[in-house]
Write a structure and sequence with these properties.
single chain, Rossmann fold, 2 domains, three-stranded parallel sheet, two-stranded parallel ribbon, 8 helices, about 15% strand, globular
Amino acid sequence: MDQCKALALEFRKNDPSAFLIQSVFSDSVRDSQLEAFPADETFHLPIDLPFSYDWIFSRFHPKVLVLMAWDTWPNLVISANRFNTKVVLGSAVIGNRKKGIMGKLTKSVFKHLDGIFPSHESFYDVFRSLVPDQIPVKVLGDTRFDSVLKKIEDNAKIFKNLKIIRILKLYFLHLLTNPAKT
């Protein structure tokens, strides 16, 4: 949610009239969290079945579907394609889904994406190997960690010892490069 909120605020800043929809699959996200989100519509996604998402695309006609981190539900991506909605994966991370049967499934879904934006340079080669050349892969970073690092840098006087700032940056870099272990 933090990544999505940071991205939604950027969309709002650049285009205040943009119609934003925030959806989640996890039951751990409370309705109050969704209501507080800076979006025009919020809801929980249905189970990933063929045609489960048609009502979303036929009602809202989104131009772009931004998936975050690793949430690439196959039927959601395919439905978006069917309704001519561009699909991008932002703050992208990859765990154990790059080899074997999971790698094949991941590749079959990723070929339907219009772009992948890894959260860190260390993920670039893996994502590049999982998609055809015509799908752009560009490292943009992780909106959640970028905002935390900016707060640290902007408030350096609070951290009187610069060594602390360097340690925090290294810690966040570690989190970005080892997401499955955190």
